[in-house]
Write a structure and sequence with these properties.
Layout (H helix, E strand, L loop, with lengths): L1 H48 L23 H10 L11 E5 L7 E12 L4 E12 L5
Antiparallel strand pairs: 1-2, 2-3
């Protein structure tokens, strides 16, 4: 009798913990994709500005045309989506925003991803962002 009374609560707690773990895993994967894209853009900016590398002839993983992050936004978004481990978000989930607060002297890369749990019982939108500094030619 006691087992029959406590079993629903036990399984509710068990599946709730599993879903919370999946949500945290998705959040970490989304954050990883954004941070990797921001790092790649920062390193590519340094290569373009200081080393005079032309991404059109020597592309980096996230830059394929000469210019800044806004010129390479589609490549940055694809790179971020590929590096969001544990997820397969579309590249349209990411955005590249140069000079946007809280990153006025750089570029902010953000992502939004809907997380649906327990067979569409509830849904939450996960967000992640990362800022990297912009290199100004002197």
């Amino acid at each position: 009798m006691e087992f029959a009374l406590t079993m629903p609560l036990f399984f509710l707690l068990l599946f709730g913990l599993i879903q919370a773990g999946l949500m945290l895993w998705s959040q970490v994967g989304l954050q990883h994709g954004v941070e990797m894209a921001a790092r790649c853009a920062s390193v590519s900016d340094i290569a373009v500005v200081l080393a005079k590398v032309n991404p059109a002839t020597s592309p980096t993983p996230c830059y394929n045309v000469n210019g800044k992050a806004s010129d390479n936004a589609s490549t940055l978004k694809t790179y971020a989506a590929a590096n969001a481990f544990g997820l397969q978000p579309p590249a349209s989930s990411f955005s590249v925003n140069p000079g946007t607060p809280p990153c006025p002297g750089g570029t902010l890369i953000t992502a939004t991803y809907p997380f649906t749990a327990i067979n569409y019982l509830y849904s939450i939108t996960l967000t992640a962002s990362s800022c990297y500094p912009t290199i100004n030619p002197s």
